[in-house]
Amino acid sequence: MTETLRCALETKFPLRMNEKGIFRILCVSDFHAPCGRRWDPRLKKALDALVDACLPDLVFIAGDLTHDDEGVGSEKLLREYIADIMAHTEELGIAWAHIPGNHDRETGIPPHVFSAFSHCLSVRGDEKLSGYGTYLLPVWPHDGCRENGPVCCVWAFDTHTGLGRYSESLGLPPEWDLNLPKMHTGFSHDDGVHFNQTAWYWELSAEMEALYGRKIPGVMFMHRPPTEMYLVGKNPTMTGMTGEIREEIGAADINTGLFAAAYERGDIRAIISGHDHINTCGGTYMGIFLAEDGGLGYDVYGDDDLRGGRVIEFSAANPGDIRTWHLHVQDCLPGGGEK
Length: 339
Ligand SMILES: [Fe+2]
Description:
Blueprint: H1 3-9, E1 15-16, E2 22-28, H2 42-54, E3 58-62, H3 75-91, E4 95-99, H4 111-115, E5 135-140, E6 152-157, H5 166-170, H6 195-212, E7 218-222, H7 228-234, H8 258-265, E8 268-273, E9 282-285, E10 288-292, E11 308-315, E12 323-328
Parallel strand pairs: 1-5, 2-3, 3-4, 6-7, 7-8, 8-10
Antiparallel strand pairs: 2-11, 5-6, 9-10, 11-12
Bound molecules: fe (ii) ion.
Fe (ii) ion is lined by residues 64, 101-103, 223, 275.
């Protein structure tokens, strides 16, 4: 086993299939806590209601926990914020993890604040990778035996914290971003997963297949959607799309090949992203389910009837065949949620 894979498989504590042979993930995002003042208390109520309704084995926060470059204003306030919104998840002993979104500057949400929480599995990941928060969370059998490898894998990708420009996060001249009048999404030169992260996934995925003699089914989480998400939105019938698209899909406009790598590897069952607050769309393109989780925060724009999270469920009996649905806050709170 290479050192890269050995490190990637080591997590603060191991994730395991639950006693029913299931591993259920709740993916939420886009809380957008404001800088310098208290966050809307409805966020905590909504998150707690989603957690109680689906009792996940992992809560994954797919970015934009804060809104400004300065985060919520101070490290002390950030600690209070995370302690407040994650208190219920922590008390239930449920594992959780996060990645940054384009609104989260690393200076604004220092990683050590997160790692101090006992059930938080967020890590920076391999230091050779760009950004912060590209890492693997293997899910082992319920008995903890590692001999035959993980049952399934959670892949977390940073789509970079800069406010958009691909050139900016690569340190390249801004004039290298050619802003063509006709782009996929209208968000031209938005940043996404970089090639070194795609290569990292490819290498680990291939090594695990060689080591364990099978492809390990997985789900990828990221903040900004991959470019192929746009294709699902444009082809709802053929992709079997469900859910809503109420704003333009803010996908990365420069395709750096992650979807193609996942397709060629053949182990990724779903790619779930945040970023767009009023999109809950999900459809299958080339055998991979692509979805947006809708926003959850109340300090930012959003639609009450869409607020919620995306649930992904693996089973030990057939880990390659996932179950997934959008869980609405209004279906989990008494009275349909506060206005
Ligand atoms: Fe975002």
